[in-house]
Amino acid sequence: MNGFKKISAEEISKNTFELIGKDWMLVTAKKPDGTVNTMTASWGGLGVMWNKNAAFVVLRPQRYTKEFVDSSDSFSLTFFADDYKKQLSYLGSVSGRDEDKITKAGLTVAENDGVPYFEESKMVLICKKMFVQEMTEDSFILKSIPKEMYSAGDYHTLYIAEIESVWVK
Ligand SMILES: Cc1cc2nc3c(=O)[nH]c(=O)nc-3n(C[C@H](O)[C@H](O)[C@H](O)COP(=O)(O)O)c2cc1C
């Protein structure tokens, strides 16, 4: 983690709603064959679960990144300075199935104990999966959500992961 220093999760100072909802993050994982994929996410959260500092992310079934997250025990969440917004938009609109989007975005993959992250990021969360569950229509109390958000039936899968380490520049 060249250029990064380790902090505790409690030391993350930026407001989570801004960090995830407004600034966005990249969800990145590696398959056993060594290939890496990433995608932009603006839904998710940071908090506490089962007495552990935890992150949750939601991935739709058609995301190529989902294959990578499913085939690995861990993934990273990376956060960037404002001037990377263009790259994050691109990584959130094109699939790694169709383009070498990490190279095209000019990002450099590095690894922390085999978990991929980006050298250009300003904060890295190394996350270890604890829980995975596919959402189903009958789980929604607020029935307008499946109607508005999942007209194609492409329900998100929820991942809750332990935040194993946090790195900042
Ligand atoms: C701002 C933004 C936020 C996004 N948030 C999510 C998300 O939380 N979950 C999700 O499944 N897709 C989300 N997406 C869509 C994926 O990033 C997008 O479909 C991406 O191209 C998937 O790439 P992949 O097929 O290489 O995994 C978001 C896209 C953008 C632009």
In short:
With about 170 residues, the chain is α+β, with helices and mostly antiparallel strands. About 20% of the residues lie in helices and about 40% in strands. Strand 2 and strand 3 (about 35-40) form a beta hairpin.
What does this structure look like?
The protein is of the alpha+beta class and 169 residues long. The protein has 5 helices and 10 strands, in the order βαββββαβααβββαβ. It has helices at residues 16-22, 64-70, 85-91, 101-104, 144-149, and strands spanning 5-7, 25-30, 36-41, 44-49, 52-59, 74-79, 109-112, 115-118, 123-134, 157-168. Strands 1, 2, 3, 4, 5, 6, 9 and 10 form an 8-stranded antiparallel beta sheet that branches. Strands 7-8 form a two-stranded antiparallel sheet. A hairpin with a 2-residue loop joins strand 4 (44-49) and strand 5 (52-59). It starts with a strand and ends with a strand. The model has no long low-confidence stretch (mean pLDDT 98). The structure holds flavin mononucleotide. Residues 24, 37, 39-43, 58-60, 63-65, 89, 92-97 line the site of flavin mononucleotide.
Q: How much beta, percentage-wise? A: 35-45%
Biggest sheet, open or closed, and with what strands and sense?
Answer: 8 strands, antiparallel
Query: For the record, what is the CATH homologous superfamily label?
Result: Electron Transport, Fmn-binding Protein, Chain A
How far the N terminus sits from the C terminus, by CA atoms, comes to 10 Å
Low-confidence stretches: none
Instruction: Tell me the structural class.
Output: alpha+beta
- Rounded mean pLDDT score: 98
The number of helical elements comes to 5
Examine the coordinates and then state which fold CATH places here, giving the name of the CATH topology. Answer: Pnp Oxidase, Chain A
In which range does the helix fraction lie?
Answer: 10-25%
Total number of domains: 1
Ions, cofactors and other bound molecules: flavin mononucleotide
* CATH class annotation: Mainly Beta
Order of helices and strands: EHEEEEHEHHEEEHE
The number of strands is 10
